[in-house]
């Protein structure tokens, strides 16, 4: 199983229009047929960062489902042009789930609510060790991931606490170069099952 973390940057005045488009057009087209939405969050920093996490069985399945979605006329003719008009930039990170609710074979969606996304940049070859340490130390986390790309030396932890993950010296000793901590709020989309 892999996860795709999509991050869109949206100007504040364009966010309501994009979120309505995502809810009313994008999600009805996508459903779970083209990947399963695991969670979505927002960060308001003057501009809006919209994060959404999708689950796929593999990179090959992701490629197949994205190609199939690209052939849906309402997606390419309605949703994408509207999204392009609202979104300033996007980035995609492919993640390998290590622990937490998300690693349980993708059976769970994440709690809809606020959280904290910790990103740890590790020395070359240390990401797996750091992820294992986080999984042990944060057994109640929503998720622990090792990035596949664009940075295979990055580890992500999603939990509910802004408290430091560990002493900076301890982190450095296991190979962590730097840590960022981003409070995230519940995203605009609520699954009909929520």
From TrEMBL:
InterPro entries: Dimeric_a/b-barrel, NIPSNAP. Residues 4-99 form the NIPSNAP domain. Gene3D superfamilies: 3.30.70.100. It comes from the Bacteria. This is NIPSNAP family protein. It comes from Burkholderia cenocepacia. The lineage of its organism: Bacteria, Pseudomonadati, Pseudomonadota, Betaproteobacteria, Burkholderiales.
